[in-house]
Amino acid sequence: MPTKIEGRSSRQDLIDDIVEAPSSSSFMSTSNSSMMIDGSKTLPSRNYSSYSNIPSLFNNKTKNEQINHTTTLTHELRDRLHLTLPRSNSSSTMISNDERRRELDLVLKHLYDGKLLTSMNDDRPSSDVSDSSIPILSKGPITRTTTTIKNDDDNKINVGNIEMLSLDDDCTSLQRELQEKELDIIHLHKEIQELQLENKLLKAKVPVMYQNGHTSNNSETETLRREKDVLQNELRSQQELIAKLQQQQHQNGIINRSNKLDEATLYQKEALEKKLKVILTRCILAICMILGIIGCLFNLMIFCQKKFRSNSCSVHFITTSIFNLLVILCGIIPELLASYQNYDIALYSSTFCKAKSYIIHVFLMISRSSVALACIDRFALCSPNANIRRLNQRHISILLVIMACVLWLIVPIHVLVYVDIQIPNRRCGGSSTYLIIYSIYAAIVTSIPLVIMIIYSFLAVRNVQLTFVRIQATTINTNENINRPTRVQKRDIQLMTIVISEVIVYYISTVSFPIYSIYLAITSDISKTTNRLAIESFMRYLALKFLIYINSCSIFYIQLLASKPFRQECKLLILRSFKRDQNKRTTKVASARLNTRQQLNRFYNRQPIE
């Protein structure tokens, strides 16, 4: 397909070229076109298959450069062009060559008049048309164009054209010819669009007057100026980037200093926290362990006496003392060993972590349940209802203790499954999801014994007061009426004091753990400062490794301070132990004296009489 037409005086010659059947080489031919404007040669090398080779404003090439572009029209492009352009109906394929020539003449006429261009521009958006107002070519004769076609190709095209025109009856050949002519028209459209773009670029290169008096007549000078502007913009952007990097480096230096200060303060806080933990563990917790073991042993010796052994309430106190002793041995001793050795096996052994958490939880809950059952037993003992008083029996108390042990061996099995070593913080506990569930569970299981203790202790005091009223109404002797109210009132006060003291110590030593668990679950996704992390670590130590053992170590001493009869029993127990030693010593001395007397008598009896 020729690219430009030069030296033709009439439109008929152009139509003859269009009617000629193009060969396959016409699509692969190389076109070198040039346009002479004001005596200068501009914009070489035009491509018809795409707009990618249209000259750019910043494309600085010499005048003698000529670029050869080879374009291959693929089947996909041919089909797309075939669908986008208006086609002739199937009924119009059998028209003669004269009619086809007239149609092409009409198309070219409209083409050069600018109607096709305006119709094509109407398909664009309004913004594109307004921004790129391309002038329409004039209707005059086309000048300053050249066409180079090889003679061999022309001969092949003419022969092919004659052969194709001779087969007017073959519909298929006519349709193929029509499609080829439509493709030729498409190339003409592209040629005209390229010419319009050339005109636009040439108009953009008019001389510009600058403030310094220089003009931009030379396209190379304009290109250099634009390149200079681009380089200046790049230099400015690089300077801004350097300034940003310097500012960022300065900020990083400040942040590094602050981080060093934070690390130093964090190190100091960790050192202080370790010192406090060591003091609490090695001093206070060790003293609590010794006193707790002594108190549990005294409780066992007091309530295992013959006069208390048959009492149902003593069964619960014996159970409480046994499991408190187990809590002290299984909980406090490993903490002391970890403090002295600086190595906690629960942080490195998953099995030991699970077993320790499960065993301590089971022993603590059985001990707390035994205290709650003791309060229920006191309530049943003082109840005016005979059916409730039947619960105050030794075998029923033993059965309730066994049921409590089985219950608390089954309920906390989830601790064995979900409690493990948490690697990020290196702690023995549950994950964030399990902590939420466990915090709710801990709040429930620690609140139930506390509520039972409070309710049934006050009910027991109330039953004692009602019993005193009944006794006072039935008594006749005035001396008894004067003495009994004081004794019953003292018992009420002693019972109330024991209950309130046990509840307070139980609340202080137990409620901190569920509160800490709920707080840790709520604030697990919040960014925390070093101060907050240090405080949380210390509170975790108090809740899990210190306060939780206070209740187990202090029950004996609470009863000793609150109850005078209990103090008397302790004194008697201590005196009996000393009296037994004294009796043994006296018996030994007496037996030794008796032996010496017998030996002396025997000796004197054996001497001869003078």
What does this 3D model show about the protein?
By secondary structure, the chain is mostly helical. The chain folds into 3 domains: about 10-60 and about 70-205, no CATH class; about 275-560, Rhodopsin 7-helix transmembrane proteins (Rhopdopsin 7-helix transmembrane proteins); about 570-610. Helices cover about 70% and strands about 0% of the residues. The protein has 21 helices and 4 strands. The protein has helices at about 10-20, 25, 75-85, 95-115, 115-120, 125-130, 150-165, 170-205, 220-305, 305-310, 310-340, 350-380, 385-390, 395-410, 415-420, 430-475, 480-510, 510-520, 530-545, 550-560, 565-605; strands spanning about 35, 40, 420, 425-430. The strands form 2 sheets. The protein has a two-stranded antiparallel sheet. A two-stranded antiparallel ribbon has the order 3-4. A hairpin with a 4-residue loop joins strand 3 (about 420) and strand 4. Helix 9 (about 220-305) crosses helix 11, helix 11 packs parallel to helix 14 and helix 18 (about 510-520) packs antiparallel against helix 19. The chain starts with 10 loop residues before the first helix and ends with a helix.
